[in-house]
Amino acid sequence: MAKGKSLEELTDPVFYILIALVEPRHGYAIMQYVEEETQGTFKIGPATLYTIIKKLVGAGLIEAEPESDPRRKTYAATAAGITKLEEEVVRRKRMVDLGMLVLQTKGRGK
Amino acid sequence: MAKGKSLEELTDPVFYILIALVEPRHGYAIMQYVEEETQGTFKIGPATLYTIIKKLVGAGLIEAEPESDPRRKTYAATAAGITKLEEEVVRRKRMVDLGMLVLQTKGRGK
DNA sequence: TTTGATATATCACTTATGGATATATTAAGA
DNA sequence: TCTTAATATATCCATAAGTGATATATCAAA
After folding, report:
1. Mean per-residue pLDDT of chain B
2. Minimal C-alpha gap between B84 and chain A (Å)
3. All residues at 6 or more sequence positions from A2 whose CB lies less than 8 Å from its CB, including other chains
4. What are the backbone angles phi and psi of residue B89, rounded to the nearest 5°?
5. Which whole number is the average pLDDT over B69-87?
6. What's the domain count of chain B?
7. Is position A3 within any domain?
8. Which of residues 48-107 of A touch B (CB under 8 A)?
9. Does strand C come within 7 Å of the CB of A56?
10. pLDDT value at A5 more than 90
11. Cβ separation A88–B99 shorter than 8 A
């Protein structure tokens, strides 16, 4: 089922989903959470959501809570998932910092 | 030539390439720049590079310098490209901030 | 003159994303 | 009670994005 070496760098929807699952949430709640947190800017549809959930479960970054009934399956980030998220936050912060630096340096003689 | 509604949110390689082109650079130099800036962490191969260059030119976010000879075609971000990059930095900063907030809030009683 | 670095470009394959759709449950009204 | 909207999970399938491999060609140095 694919999965491979990807997830080394997280894409935007994967990043958002992992953020959402720092606290336990079921699928639909993830969609709503992301939409709210981004002021409706970023929407994750069901296809993207369940595709990514499957992949994250396969990679051991999230897991379904055992008691959760199938009508409302609750997921949460595993310890590995939290670690991964922390790394990804750092990685992305570097990107943002580089962007800001380059923009602010622009124009000024090198 | 494709292009569509994409480029609304920039993916990682597109973001890096646009950052590189805040100063004029030719293709190969972009590859090297990104590799250096990321300490070899993030590499952009030629296929990705030229695919994205084409797309960015089509979208008016970068342009080839008119004098540049075809053996060493130099590109640079347009005004629209700089604006886009600024927006993207803000968008990504929000994502990072959300990630940090969520991680640091975790565990503490809601 | 051969080799490695520079440089651009495309092919063809894989991966990622997401609209549309299907199905089922639940809660609130009329 | 019927019906409708919101909740909820899931997949199909088409499009978009990313990329290793490969093909060329030039240039500088040994």
Report:
1. 89
2. 11
3. A55
4. -60, -45
5. 91
6. 1
7. no
8. 82, 85-86, 88-89, 91-96, 98-100, 102-103, 106
9. no
10. no
11. yes
Average pLDDT over chain A reads: 89
Vertex A9 angle, CA B57 and A92, to 5°: 75
Distance A10 CA to C16 C1' (A): 11
Full domain range(s) for residue A87: 12-105
Q: Return d(Cα B52, Cα A89) in angstroms, integer.
A: 25
Q: Is B23 on the interface with A (CB under 8 A)?
A: yes
Residue A66 lies in a domain: yes
Residue B7 maps to a domain: no
**Closest CA relative to residue A46, chosen from A32, A58, A67, A59:** A32
| Range in A29-38, B2-11, B47-56, B99-108 the model is least confident about | B2-11
Q: What is the predicted pLDDT for the residue at B1?
A: 34
CATH number of the domain to which B69 belongs = 1.10.10.10
Q: How far is B109 from chain A (nearest CA, A)?
A: 11
Length A108 CA → D14 C1' (Å): 47
Q: Which nucleotide is nearest to B54 (CA to C1')?
A: C9
Residue B44 lies in a domain: yes
pLDDT (tens digit, 9 = 90+) per residue, A34-68? 999 999 999 999 999 999 999 999 999 999 988 76
